[in-house]
Design a protein that fits this description.
Keywords: Hydrolase. The protein is α/β, with parallel strands linked by helices. It is 32% helix and 21% strand. The protein is built from eleven helices and 18 strands. Helix 3 runs parallel beside helix 4, helix 4 crosses helix 5 and helix 9 crosses helix 10.
Length: 361
C-alpha cells in the first residue's frame, strides 16, 4: 500500500495553520490536500491532537567528512523532524554523492568548501587546504569556478578580521552571481557583517556577538534583499562558554530583534557540529533555535516559517518547505500545536522524507 492519508491533525502548511485538512502521500509526493478525500485503499493515520508540519530545514549545519559518520548525523537530524540540512563546511565530492544516494536520512545540500584567507582563524582549521585560502581577486575567480565544478550548491565566504579583504569578498560575490550561485557569508562580528553587506552577499549567517547592529544597518539589509540565518543557539553557547573574550549573546539577540522589526527574513539554522567546544547537537538544536527566535521577537508562526517555507524559498529548494500538492512528502507530525507553543516541535511523533516514514526508535 503506497497511499498514506494523515487526517484529523492541525496542518501548518509552511505559511499558516489550517483545521479540517487531510494530506495524502503517494509515490514520495503530496498528492492531495483537502477536506474531502477518498480514503479507499489507503493507510490512515489519525492525527487527532497533533500538528502536521512541512519537514524542518536546518539552514546551517556541519557534517563529518566521513560518509558513515555524516550519514548517522543525517539520521539523527531526521529523527528530530529535520528533513533537509544545509551543510556549510568542507566536503569532497565523493562524500556528497554517497550521502545523496541514501534514503531514510535527511536530504542535504553543500557549500563544497569555504573561502577564507591566510592568517585567519578559519585558516587554522584542520581540514583547511590551499583551496580555501583566497588572498586576491584572481584566486576568487578560480575558487568559484572550482566550487561549481565540484557540484557545490552555494558559495560560502568567511568574512572576518583577519580574513579575506573587502576586495576579495566583493570578487567572490561578483563571480558567484555571474554564474547564478547564491553566496552565504559567515559574519559573527559587527565588522564582518559590514564586510558582508558591502560585498552584497545574499545570505548572512550568524549574528554579531560583539556589538548589536544599528537600525540603519538592518534597513540596508532589508532594502538590498538580504536575509539572515542568525544561529542563535550557537551564539548563546559560544557566549555562555566564553570561548573567546568579548562575546555577548545580548548583542546577537538585539540584532535579530532589529532585523526582524526591519522586515529582514530570518531563517532557522543552528551551526550544529561535533566540536566538544560548541556542543550544539544535530537535530535537537533546531528546536532550541526556534525558541530563541521567538524570544528575540518572532511570532510562533514566523519561527515555523523560518524553519520551513522561508528556508526552502531562499535556498532555492522549490520542491519542499510547504504542504502543497506536488511537493516532496517531507513531513513531520508533532504533539500539540506549535503555533500556540513553539516547544511543541520537540514532541516528534512521525517523520516522512520523500514519502518514506522514518523509524524513530
Amino acid at each position: 500500500m503506497d497511499k498514506t492519508i494523515i487526517k484529523n491533525a492541525l496542518v501548518f502548511d509552511g505559511h499558516i495553520l489550517h483545521t479540517n485538512l487531510a494530506v495524502i502521500i503517494e509515490n514520495g509526493l503530496i498528492s492531495s490536500v483537502g477536506s474531502s478525500i477518498d480514503t479507499s485503499n489507503a493507510k490512515i493515520i489519525d492525527g487527532t491532537g497533533l500538528t502536521l508540519l512541512p519537514g524542518l530545514i536546518d539552514c546551517h549545519v556541519h557534517l563529518d567528512p566521513d560518509v558513515e559518520t555524516a550519514s548517522q548525523l543525517l539520521l539523527q537530524l531526521a529523527k528530530a523532524g529535520v528533513t533537509t540540512a544545509l551543510d556549510m563546511g568542507h566536503f569532497p565530492g565523493s562524500v556528497r554523492d554517497g550521502l545523496r544516494t541514501r534514503s531514510g536520512i535527511a536530504d542535504v545540500r553543500f557549500a563544497g568548501t569555504f573561502a577564507t584567507a591566510t592568517g585567519s582563524i578559519h585558516s587554522r582549521f584542520r581540514q583547511v587546504t590551499a583551496a580555501n585560502l583566497i588572498d586576491d581577486p584572481e584566486s576568487a575567480v578560480r575558487f568559484v569556478e572550482d566550487r561549481i565544478a565540484e557540484g557545490a550548491d552555494y558559495i560560502k565566504i568567511v568574512a572576518d578580521v583577519p580574513g579575506p579583504s573587502q576586495e576579495v569578498v566583493n570578487a567572490l560575490v561578483v563571480e558567484a552571481r555571474k554564474r547564478g550561485m547564491l553566496t552565504v557569508a559567515h559574519a559573527a562580528r559587527k565588522g564582518a557583517l559590514g564586510m558582508a553587506q558591502e560585498g552584497k552577499v545574499d545570505i548572512v549567517t550568524h549574528a554579531p556577538l560583539d556589538f548589536p547592529i544599528k537600525e540603519a544597518e538592518a534597513k540596508l539589509m532589508k532594502d538590498e534583499g538580504r536575509v539572515c540565518v542568525p544561529t542563535l543557539i550557537m551564539e548563546e553557547t559560544m557566549a555562555s562558554r566564553k570561548v573567546f573574550p568579548g562575546l555577548n549573546y545580548a548583542a546577537a539577540k538585539e540584532s535579530v530583534t532589529l532585523l526582524h522589526k526591519a522586515g529582514v527574513p530570518i531563517l532557522a539554522g543552528t551551526d550544529a557540529n561535533q566540536s566538544p567546544m560548541a556542543a550544539v547537537k544535530h537535530g535537537e538544536a533546531l528546536h532550541r533555535e526556534l525558541e530563541l527566535l521567538v524570544d528575540a521577537g518572532l511570532s510562533n508562526e514566523e519561527a515555523l516559517r523560518a524553519a520551513t517555507s522561508l528556508g526552502a524559498q531562499w535556498f532555492r529548494l522549490a520542491d519542499r518547505g510547504v504542504i502543497a500538492v506536488g511537493k516532496r512528502a517531507d513531513l513531520v507530525l508533532v504533539g500539540g500545536n506549535p503555533v500556540d507553543n513553539i516547544a511543541a516541535t520537540k514532541d516528534v511523533k512521525r517523520v516522512w522524507i520523500a514519502g518514506e516514514e522514518i523509524m524513530l526508535g
